[in-house]
Amino acid sequence: MEHDALTAQAQAWLAEDPDPDTRDELARLIASGDHAELTARFAGTLQFGTAGLRGELGAGPLRMNRSVVIRAAAGLAAYLTKQGTPHGTDTAGLVVIGYDARHKSRTFAEDTAAVMTGAGLRAAVLPRPLPTPVLAFAIRHLGAVAGVEVTASHNPPRDNGYKVYLGDGSQIVPPADAGIAAEIEAITSLTSVPRPTTGWETLDDSVLDAYLARTDAVLSPDSPRTARTVYTAMHGVGKDVLLAAFARAGFPAPDLVTEQAEPDPDFPTVAFPNPEEPGAMDLAFAKARETDPDLVIANDPDADRCAAAVKDGADWRMLRGDEVGALLAAHLVRRGATGTFAESIVSSSLLGRIAEKAGLPYEETLTGFKWIARVDGLRYGYEEALGYCVDPDGVRDKDGITAALLLTELASELKSENRTLLDLLDDLAVEHGLHATDQLSVRVKDLGLIAAAMRRLREQPPTELAGLRITKAEDLTEGTDKLPPTDGLRYTLDGARVVVRPSGTEPKLKCYLEVVIPVAAKADLPEARTRATAFLTTIKQDLSKAAGI
Fold this sequence. Notes:
Helix content: 25-40%
Structural class: alpha/beta
Low-confidence stretches: none
Distance between the termini: 31 Å
């Protein structure tokens, strides 16, 4: 864009910006004449999709800020109105709004409430920063027509986001996302968006109390509750709710990683506030070495994900999301659960084998709980990125609090049998084959590198990986008989599977790998694990070369 046109666009944005922080930031940028930085903020708009909005905080349409949030809220309100949402003094559609403890989250939540009120809808804001699953629960509990959660989940401190749910309590999917995006695009000026300063409700703790009461349904009434845990909230909002849920269930109070226990939007002890990232669990492991618990549990900052670690030999190690997913599935089967087990295509095929052996329905979906939560008759759903839906009638989304409860119940039951989670994983490997998974994840600054890698794999597809022949190659942009189209590639190999896709929420290319090795007896597991590790390492190398990354 020409410098004069770019400056004019920035000045027009500045004239409407309601936030003194971003006004000052943008005024300084305009005065500096930094063409590259202005282009980075004004060369488009932050796109609204099935993940809602997520991006770096700052001024301009390509950043997360009050102007962008007000437009998003106004677009959502217009969409709901056109869908026939009831209006009137007593029957106006209710929109529930939650928020985490990140920078600007509360402000974005209040802006959303003002816009909904100005559009003739009812708005209710949760009483303080609370886990995302509390918001997902509140939508159904209160009979709302929609919900908004202001969160960037486990993204870096500089980010924030805007997640939208409809009245079924599930995150939006097509065509709702495109419908909302079109309404956002139609908003030409913030002056056209009414934003009263009062008129919405701030909820009290009754909705949180109802969520906690609902957690009773997750556990067996007579199960042991003896497992001792170390817990980290990863500087997020999970601590108080998890402690209340554990106390209600009768588990021993978790030992807290105090350095990460309280909300802090700067996440000072971690490079990325995601339990999967290297170093994020170091403080939790140090606490575990001091207290020797049965289990280490971590939530991500908005507590919709749950990570777990166990003692393996002399030290502690993280369980993979696929391992926790299989453990929870086996536990539910043992308890006599009925209904459909579901997972996304990037998760381990072990869940399908567990469901088949138990005579339970099983479904695969596209990535994300927006899809998993919509499976008919869902009883349990999980995704390898530490997301678990263990009570879909209560929360139709991933929930790191109830997942932690169920996993701690399982650890307690195994403890009563003088066994561990690792023993159960061994049993599953012998019964169904060793399902070893790994991920090749490449974080980029230039999103063009991701597009180039996907294009290269499509134009020059590999015929084998790690010496294993690719028996089926699927371009998922075309969809399948069971899956709608998505930007991804799936390779089926002799005894292995690979899925490649761009992340929907981070600047990453993600490659999900799985190797399945039959195991005749427990004594064969060490050799099987060695073989699986070698296969996965070589698949990574070959795939990286094929993709040019």
